[in-house]
Design goal:
227 residues; globular; 32% helix
Length: 227
């Protein structure tokens, strides 16, 4: 099954300051359960592509499909529901809420999606255990290391059982030890059949990917199956 599909996908900026095409007529198919690493120099369009695939931006032209459903043409309300229930996002800066504990951060998307407080808390606890942080459930983000905060963010991304997880430079703010923690977790998710798309500068991500896409100037310079 094709989980993510893009056809003729383009994103342009700078109507008055000179047109820049951040993503340039990209075609892409990602199968269910596949882990894809997207690499390339800064400014090549990696993060913009990820935002287009996850519905965080609408393309200038082209189409985006998720699990057989076209999402770029949806209403804002319908697109927000897709982002809430079908896509999990992991960012370089974690984006955890400082006033909440780890378990509260993880359960919040489930509560917003309509789960009961009891069910949301149970699911959050399961995921914190899965990422090895059950003993940090009631710690706030400032009490956690960078690697621990990123693992909380990954647990939060998984709480609504998304079809695909999109990660933008998830190891960019981490030291080597914390990076290895996150890489091991991504490898576990890959082996469990989670569809993952990871934008990164870190060549070590390729070690836990099925496929590596190199971008340059908004286009694919190379697309290689690794395993």
């Amino acid at each position: 099954m094709t989980m993510v599909r893009a056809r003729g996908l383009s994103m342009e900026y700078g109507e008055y300051t000179g047109l820049v095409r951040a993503v340039d007529r990209v075609d892409l198919d990602i199968g269910a359960g596949q882990t894809v690493a997207i690499m390339g120099p800064s400014g090549c369009g990696k993060s913009t592509l990820l935002q287009l695939l996850g519905g965080l931006q609408r393309p200038t032209s082209g189409e985006v499909w998720l699990a057989g459903r076209r999402i770029d043409a949806l209403s804002e309300r319908a697109l927000a529901k897709i982002r809430q229930n079908e896509v999990g996002f992991v960012f370089q800066a974690f984006h955890l809420m400082d006033e909440l504990t780890a378990v509260e951060n993880v359960e919040t998307p489930a509560l917003l999606a309509g789960r009961s407080p009891r069910a949301a808390r149970h699911r959050a606890g399961e995921l914190l255990d899965r990422v090895g942080l059950s003993d940090r459930a009631h710690h706030q983000p400032w009490q956690l290391s960078g690697g621990q905060r990123q693992r909380v963010a990954i647990a939060r991304a998984l709480v609504n059982e998304p079809r695909v997880v999109l990660a933008d430079e998830p190891t960019g703010n981490l030291d080597s030890a914390a990076t290895l923690e996150v890489l091991r977790l991504f490898d576990e998710l890959r082996q469990a059949g989670q569809t993952l798309v990871v934008v990164t500068h870190d060549a070590r991500i390729a070690a836990v990917a099925d496929r590596l896409i190199a971008m340059r100037d908004g286009m694919f310079a190379d697309d290689s199956v690794l395993v």
